[in-house]
Task: structure prediction
Amino acid sequence: MKKIWAPLLILCAAPAASQTDPHRTVDPTFLHRFVPAVKPVTVPISSPTAHYQALFGEGDANAKLLRAMTRFGELTVDPNGKSSLVKYPREEHMFVILDGDGTVAYDGKTFPVKKDDFLYLPPTVEFGLNGGAKGVKAAFMGFKIPESMPLTIPDTLKIANINDVPLVNVGGHPLDTLYRLLMGDTKSTRDKLSTGHVMISLFVMEFAPGATNFPHHHETQEEIYLLLDGKGQMVAGSGIDGIEGKYPARPGDAYYYRANTTVGFYNDKAPSPKPARILAVRSNMPPPKQ
Result:
């Protein structure tokens, strides 16, 4: 009798091409960046005196992972320098001034800005950032507005300062984690500024020693955390047993979370002269393609 099983065995043992394709990758559930390690890249708002570190979105290797968000990074303008002017017909943007002072160019006018100011930059309006005598550094973030959504353009620049926003408790979170609710959508009644279309919540969290915001997830929203002060453990994702993925975090650590990803933070238990602070922003995901 002829043996015919050997060729069949060889065929069965051969791996599928898709399993060995070195060019295929799995989309990450979250992204992590450490600001000091990110080199500046050239984007439209850059200039010889304005340097942009792309953390997520435009200018970053994983830019396509973001859905509603278009960019999140740090823009540093040299002393007396200027960024390029930019304008986006269907995107809204925010600056949060992290350090220094200067002016923002907005619709042909200039307005002074200083540390801890935050401001809304609507679609269709030209804007840029100028450094003062010591320069200025800002978190710069942008969001795509669907064509079907009507645009609401403020009559003038909407700006406020973080220190003028009260610390409050937010339902469902522990009492030793407090929130400054900086900016919400145009229907918001709780935020300092109610201006967003796709961006629905820009806020700062302050954590007492050992505090947490209870790890949680948002089914239809993507989110970014940037640790400003303190250290602890950032939560990003969880396993089948519900145990959170925890990662040591220090100032400058930034995380992007896809929709439905577990997010959270555990502050260090050691006494600290000031609370840990996280700048966070959340946006609605665009509707699925038909």
